């Protein structure tokens, strides 16, 4: 793994003239608009980067963006990778390990998720303060490289509390409806049944999605502080569950995305 990461990092350094990012960003479904706020210095297609998995989803751009956001050097994934695409957990989280090797000190993650909490409505934002992992495999399964992190990493604070607090304050100052809560990661790609939504709420979830947790586990393994935020694109708590299309999810994310961008941009500027 170390050799593969080194090969990818050396390629990226050559292509970006040794650009050294401070912050890594992962942009979820329908949430690539933050890139418009970045003063782009370099951008590379995943397909051109050695060892990098390729996003198979038509609504994910599949670009690695290097640039300046609010005075900070960032590297942003415009389009993430998912377990349901057929990749292993190690492949999904490979970009996070590459970001760490490039020098990031913080990781910011976004996603689109379904609300499980009756107080959290479609179009609202939710800062993630904890998670429940129902995906079938850990990205840390297999032989551990102690140079990357410990065999049994602590997960008592997977999301940095100070950033959660700051984000909620920023949202309040900007009159943005933003909650905090527990994110549950499932495999997908199918959405949940009514009974499954009920179960996920009973076990403590406020929102459900198909991503984020693998990246967060690997970031914690490597000692990277994490902030994560969800755009709530549908509601799984209604008495009669309504069918949801991908187009509707993407449109809801697109409408809510500027609010998320404002929070992320201002939060990043404080680091």
UniProtKB/TrEMBL annotation:
CDD domains: PNP-EcPNPII_like. Pathway: Purine metabolism; purine nucleoside salvage. The keyword Phosphoprotein applies. Pfam families: PNP_UDP_1 (PF01048). It is an enzyme of class 2 (transferase). The keyword Transferase applies. Keywords: Glycosyltransferase, Phosphoprotein, Transferase. One of its GO terms (molecular function) is purine-nucleoside phosphorylase activity. Residues 23-268 form the Nucleoside phosphorylase domain. Its EC number is 2.4.2.1. Signal peptide: none annotated. InterPro entries: Nucleoside_phosphorylase_d (IPR000845), Nucleoside_phosphorylase_sf (IPR035994), Pur_Nuc_Pase_Ino/Guo-sp (IPR011270), Purine_phosphorylase (IPR011268), Purine_phosphorylase-2_CS (IPR018099). It comes from the Bacteria. GO terms for biological process: nucleoside metabolic process. GO terms for cellular component: cytoplasm. The purine nucleoside phosphorylases catalyze the phosphorolytic breakdown of the N-glycosidic bond in the beta-(deoxy)ribonucleoside molecules, with the formation of the corresponding free purine bases and pentose-1-phosphate. Homotrimer. Belongs to the PNP/MTAP phosphorylase family. This is Purine nucleoside phosphorylase. The lineage of its organism: Bacteria, Pseudomonadati, Bacteroidota, Sphingobacteriia, Sphingobacteriales.
């Amino acid at each position: 793994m170390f050799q593969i990461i080194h090969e990818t990092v050396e390629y990226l350094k050559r292509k970006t003239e040794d650009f050294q990012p401070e912050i890594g960003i992962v942009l979820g479904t329908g949430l690539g608009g933050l890139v418009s706020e970045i003063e782009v210095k370099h951008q590379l297609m995943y397909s051109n980067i050695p060892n990098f998995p390729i996003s198979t989803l038509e609504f994910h751009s599949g670009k690695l963006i290097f640039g300046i956001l609010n005075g900070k050097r960032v590297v942003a994934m415009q389009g993430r990778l998912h377990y349901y695409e057929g990749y292993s957990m190690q492949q999904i989280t490979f970009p996070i390990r590459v970001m760490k090797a490039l020098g990031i000190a913080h990781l910011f993650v976004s996603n689109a998720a379904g609300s499980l909490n009756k107080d959290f409505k479609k179009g609202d934002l939710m800062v993630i303060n904890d998670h429940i992992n129902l995906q079938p495999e850990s990205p840390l399964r297999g032989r551990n490289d102690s140079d990357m992190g410990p065999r049994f990493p602590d997960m008592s604070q997977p999301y940095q509390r100070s950033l959660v607090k700051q984000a909620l304050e920023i949202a309040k100052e900007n009159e943005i409806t933003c909650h905090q809560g527990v994110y549950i990661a499932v495999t997908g790609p199918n959405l949940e049944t009514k009974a499954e939504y009920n179960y996920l709420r009973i076990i403590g979830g406020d929102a459900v999605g198909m991503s984020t947790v693998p990246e967060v586990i690997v970031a914690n393994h490597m000692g990277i502080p994490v902030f994560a935020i969800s755009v709530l694109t549908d509601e799984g708590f209604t008495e009669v569950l309504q069918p949801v299309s991908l187009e509707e999810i993407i449109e809801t994310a697109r409408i809510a995305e500027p609010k998320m961008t404002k929070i992320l941009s201002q939060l990043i500027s404080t680091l």
